[in-house]
Amino acid sequence: MGKSSFLGEETIALHSGYQPDPSYGSRAVPIYQTTSYVFESVDEGASLFNIEKGGHIYSRITNPTVAVLEQRIAALEGGTGAVCTASGMSALFVAFITLCSAGDHIVSAAQIYGSTATLLRYTLKRFDIGCTFVAINDPDALKEAIQENTKLVFCESIGNPGLEVSDLPAISNIAHERGLPVVVDATFATPSLCRPFEHGADIIVHSITKWMGGHGVAIGGVIVDGGAFDWGKYGKHPTLTEPYEPFHGISFWEEYGPSALVMRIRSESMRDLGPSMSPHTAFLLLQGIETLSLRMQQHVENAKQLTRWLLEQGLVTWVNHPDLPDNPTHRVAERLFPKGAGSILCFGVKGGRDGGGAFMDALVLSSNLANVGDSRTLVLHPASTTHSRLSDEEMKATGTSPDLIRVSVGIENIADIIKDFKGGLKAVERLLK
Amino acid sequence: MILTVNNEKAFVATGGQVFDNSKPTVVFVHGSGLDHRFWTLQTRWFAFHGYSVFAPDLPGHSLSAGVPLDSIEAMGKWLVAALDSAGVDSIHLIGHSSGFLIALEAASRLDSRLKTLTAVASAESIPVNEDLIVIAESSASAGADLMLKWGFGSKTQLGVSAVPGMQPIAISRQIMSDNPLAIDLRACRDYAASNAMLNKLNCPTNVILASEDKMTPCKFGLELATRLGANVSQIDDSGHFLPIESPKKTLDAIKSFIGKHTD
Predict the structure, then answer these.
(1) Claim to verify: residue A264 and residue A317 sit in the same structural domain
(2) What is the ipTM of this complex?
(3) Which of the residues A110, A205, A269, B169 could staple to A94 if both were Cys, CB 3.0 to 4.6 A apart?
């Protein structure tokens, strides 16, 4: 179990990673809008380049504003370190290629975000990194899918959009017995609702565009290292244990131990690929994170109330949320998400695909768009958008159906959200007549 | 590099360079429950600036095999055996916290090979709270939590890190949780030979203090420095875990002292 701070979650969200700067005493984290940093001397510059010392060289690799965000998220998750990236997808890509090389293999949950599925199924395949998709909570299927060349097990803490909660302790036990780390996309959960390192996960990835930011104005991702995985024990990950020529044959595991993964990412992917976050984006995301705990309470409460209301509506054919007893992973959600399993819910209406369309077009307050985790209520029809590149069979495997409407419940007054949804259901009623 | 010391494999970090025993060698000794990674932001600089680096994991710690040693005296002897097996001749010895007591114990056996001795956040003796040992015996991570909560300075407690994106508390906790913390703490508590060892010292000495050190408060470090007639430097805004809390200032304090005593 990780622990980066002895402060409470709300305090970490406001303070961690920053103290008022000594020059001007700025209480807010300043935006260090600079590409580069003056070296004190030639020797100092050389030492920074050779990672003999910590510090900033170039904002593609590190930046003081971004570093505050990284340290704050690492503290919230209980990790040893974090690297922010330009988006959640670049965070996933970087995490995968840091652990995998050509000829390697990933085992992934089948029920995952459409673009992540495409990355694993098609894009990484071009680089000869294979992937097997499994029902992640089926222990036998997971064990069977693991091959000699498997380098990691991937899942989402709450699957998108099927809303199945990954049984992280069970998955981690199986993966660890085979010398594999578990990488979790915890975007739907945030550390406010579930801290995956406490349940056995080894690496956490977020799209911090979503609930972590909450305001829907900035795209960003992060990779957090739990620091507990013993990379040296199994010898399965040469990128961390074998000499790395660009830095005089450094072994990241020997040199950095619990922060080996972050140091490798910083030294390789951020330097060579450059998927960096801008300091202005980091500043915006920091503003959101300051209120994460308060917002998540309201998100979860509104989701519970909207779920209850939808279940009572005759035009609603089904409702899915992990807190509902008929969700197949309800028991897992109770264990891992004691405060509530997030604020995404899915439902279907009478009239199938057309009914869903009528519902969505009638909404006024809620926004039809391809995002989740905004403070505002958002709705989406995955079959025509995020999951449109998947075949019907693939869509089914990811937990999607043609009539599925995904709701990211916002923090507006719940009465106003319900009023908006009533308008949507009236449109369905008109369609059916 | 991997050495064989007392028939067990010992890991020794060399700062990213091939070890060369013909160079003056800077030896870094970690404190209770820690390992060579605690010194990462000092070792690499020395290795690329004309020195050889020798930063071992003590037996039974992190990458070193063997049974953890249960006394400072045994650890000091082991360190000398490790240096002998690497054929090290010119030694600048540095220890953090209880690592300094180990260094002190080794110093008396190194004779003229020892060129300088540096204490980082340490004292002549380091009492250890019995409750802490009891907790560490039942759970190294619970013991580590107590030490880290008490040991790190206020900036680090607020998540500020000298290395961008890192959390020094979590890194230290992870290292300590996997190591024999209780055995180390007991050895530290029981060590009573420092007075005799200090009397034998005849090399230049250096004491580096941390202004917010609650585990080995500055006044005890100053008493040590006074007794030794040592060079003294105090680093502000840092707690007991100086090398990872204030790595650059710690490095500067070490290198300026060693630089004056290197031919």
Answers:
(1) no
(2) 0.95
(3) A269
